[in-house]
Amino acid sequence: MADTTSSVQTHYGSGELVDRILEALAAAGHDTANPTVEMLNLIDQLHGGGFNSTKAQAELVGFAKESRVVDAGCGVGGSSRYLAHTYGCRIEAIDLTPEYVEAAERLNELCGLGDRITVRQGSVTDLPYEDQSADIVWCQNVSMNVEDKPAMFAEAYRVLSPGGRYTISHAAQGPAGEPHYPLPWAMEPSYSHLGTPEQVLGWLEDAGFRIIEHLKEGGAGARARSRPARWVQASSWGRTCRNVSPIPPARPGKAGWSAC
């Protein structure tokens, strides 16, 4: 586990992230002396599908003003800022990579959202939050780097209050076996932990969630557990899980990963 943690931090860690983001936006003609959430959203969505997938996932979940949200694997905080700004949520964000945490904190302050978003460094398998303290746990394309998914899902369940919801995007292993590397989340297999769609859904159920709906890639409704899914919703004892994946399957002939 320690080796995986180190590999993930090395994979994502990079210096001067904020300066590089602002330089890129300035080069595109934006007024970076007065950064806004909308401006940063053009470049701060570090997951498959980008900003469009964040908006779609948020619309699927549904948020109330002042919702208590845990952003489990926040990256540089793009989704946290969007949710706080658009829906008025209060966010507790966490990420494994120190450079991402530092960048998220600075960008939050630049946008005037430092009072609505708290960022910590840590793991999604050991969330530093009280039991039943969140209305929603939000997670985008993090679990591919998490070896112990049962622990990850159990932690999400633990921190959700009755009536709370879990929304997760994930890329799962396809029917043809291991993918070809490098991939966006791993340069080589030692810190890539996909799991099949059936495994992921099973682990969610084992954590206490009940799958109530998932949609096939492409948006059509599906109830069959055997099919790879794009959208999944689940509920148990008042907690809800919605599983979302905007990442397309591997190219034909390239054995590997599929949406789950």
Secondary-structure class: alpha/beta
Helix and strand run:
HHHHEHEHEEHEEHEEEEE
Number of domains as seen in the coordinates: 1
Helix count, DSSP H or I runs of 4 or more residues? 8
Main sheet makeup: 9 strands, mixed
In the CATH scheme, the class would be: Alpha Beta
The overall strand count is: 11
Q: Note the quaternary state here.
A: single chain
Low-confidence stretches: 216-238, 244-260
Q: Which whole number gives the mean pLDDT?
A: 79
Radius of gyration: 17 Å
What fraction, in percent, of the residue positions are helical?
25-40%
For the biggest β-sheet, the strand order reads: 3-2-1-4-5-10-9-7-8
Question: Which descriptor suits the 3D outline?
Answer: globular
Tell me the CATH architecture.
Answer: 3-Layer(aba) Sandwich
Description:
The chain has eight helices and eleven strands. Residues 216-238 and 244-260 have low confidence and may be disordered. It is globular. Helices cover 32% and strands 23% of the residues. Helix 6 links the parallel strand 2 and strand 3 (117-121). It has one domain: Rossmann fold. The protein is α/β, with parallel strands linked by helices and 260 residues long.
Short characterization:
Helix content is 32%, strand content 23%. The chain is an alpha/beta fold.
What are the defining features of this structure?
260 residues, nine-stranded mixed beta sheet, two-stranded antiparallel ribbon, 23% strand, disordered C terminus
Please specify the SSE layout and strand pairing.
Layout: H1 2-12, H2 17-27, H3 37-40, H4 50-61, E1 68-72, H5 78-87, E2 90-95, H6 98-110, E3 117-121, E4 134-140, H7 149-159, E5 160-169, E6 171-173, H8 197-206, E7 211-216, E8 221-222, E9 229-236, E10 239-244, E11 257-259
Parallel strand pairs: 1-2, 1-4, 2-3, 4-5, 5-10
Antiparallel strand pairs: 6-11, 7-8, 7-9, 9-10
